[in-house]
Amino acid sequence: METVNLVMPYVTAAIDAYGETVLAKTRELAAGTPEARGGRVLQRVFGRGDRRSLEVIARVAGAKPDDEPSRAALRRALTEAFQADPLLRREVAAMLPPDPGGR
């Protein structure tokens, strides 16, 4: 669950920036911005996206920033993916910047 909490700001920033097309972006995700990092995480977790993951991303993209049910659906999808594949969780954790607080 900790990895999910760490990636949420990145993946939501990516969805806010790129909307439903976030999984199709390539050139934009080469940058070092939080949005780009979040996009790369989403691509790693969901690939090109199955129907369910695309629906979750579309729901978040169409939601207001304070729409907690949509963000919770994304959090659940990430949690399920990490529980199903512990290696994926470790790979995604390695994609995050070092924790400046040393936590």
Characterization of this structure:
This protein is mostly helical and 103 residues long. The chain has one domain (2-94). The chain has 5 helices and no strands. The protein has helices at residues 2-18, 34-46, 51-61, 68-84, 86-94. The longest helix is centred in the N-terminal third of the chain and has 17 residues, at 2-18. The chain is globular. The model has no long low-confidence stretch (mean pLDDT 84).
How are helices and strands ordered from N to C?
Answer: HHHHH
Largest sheet data: none
**Beginning-to-end CA distance, first to last residue:** 15 Å
Stretches where pLDDT falls below 50 for ≥5 residues? Answer: none
Binned strand content: under 5%
How many helix segments?
Answer: 5
Total individual domains: 1
The Rg value, from CA coordinates, equals: 13 Å
The residue fraction in helices comes out at 55-70%
Overall geometry: globular
Instruction: Look at the structure and give the mean pLDDT.
Output: 84
How would you classify the helix and strand content by structural class? mainly alpha
The total beta strand count reads: 0
